[in-house]
Structures are given as C-alpha cells and as structure tokens.
Amino acid sequence: MPHRIFRLLTVVWVGSLLTIGYAVAPVLFSSLDRTTAGAVAAQLFRIEGLLGAVCGILLLGLANVLVRRGNGEYRRLRWLVAGMLICVLVGYFALQPFMNAMRVAALEAGTDLAHSPYAARFGMLHGVSSLFYLIESLLGIALVWKLPVNTGAGVAQQGARDVSGEVAG
Q1: Potential cystine with 154: which of 97, 115, 149, 150 (Cβ 3.0-4.6 Å)?
Q2: At what angle do helices 2-19 and 119-146 cross, to 10 degrees?
Q3: Is the entire prediction scored with pTM above 0.85?
C-alpha cells in the first residue's frame, strides 16, 4: 500500500507542477493583462508551493518506510524527492516572499511592477525562481520515469511466471 500512496503523491505533485507552470501560467499571461495575470499566477504558484512542500515531506517519509521494508528501488528516488523539495523551499519560501513584497510595493506606489523601480530586481528574482521551477520539473519527470514498475502485487505475479515467461498455474 505505501508504494501506491507514493505513486499517487508523485503524480499529484508532478502533474500539478507541470500543469500550472507550463499550461495555466502561459494561458493567463496570453489572456489577461500582465498585472492581473501576475496576481493570479502568484496565487497559483503559492498553492503549488504548499502542495509541493507537503507532498515532498510525505514522499520522503514514505520512501524511508519503503527502504526500511526492503524496497531498495526507493533509495535513489529519495534523492530526486529531496532535490525537488529543496527547489520548492528555495523557490516558493525564499524567493516568492521577496517577489510578492515588490509587487505589493509597486501597487502601493500607484504603478504596475513593470514600471516601478523594482522591475529589474523582480526580473532577476523571477529568472532565478524560474530556474528552480525548471529544475524541480525535470527532477519530477525523472521521478515519475524511475518509479518502480514491479511493486506489491506485480512482484507476486512476476514470481508466478515460469522460465518461458508465461504465468504458471
């Protein structure tokens, strides 16, 4: 059962990560004005950050349980999850608060972010944040790709195969 929960959490995290970052955000910026799109995207990325932190912590815990139960395939997956979790912590909990503060300061000054004195600094932070998001996405794709195929019932069924590859009995 823990391996199924591991898979479910993985696809929820990676699926939402890819959907929000590479489908929803571009549509927002192509459909809405930059200020509105930025505000909506910031909210979505905040939710994605919280989801990523929760999934990352749960996945690390599950991977440790599975490794202790003798599922060595999850030993290497812990490194991918840890890398993704670091990206979440840096991107969402270190960089995003500064970016949001600049967005709020620009609005309080009566201008949009692009025309504020914070534009260059925001652009730099946005670039660094985007890099962490890309790394997290690539690690997530690798995590999905490397998920063990034969776990639980699959292992029992594979054990029932005879030498010719056909299921015995």
Answers
A1: 150
A2: 140
A3: no
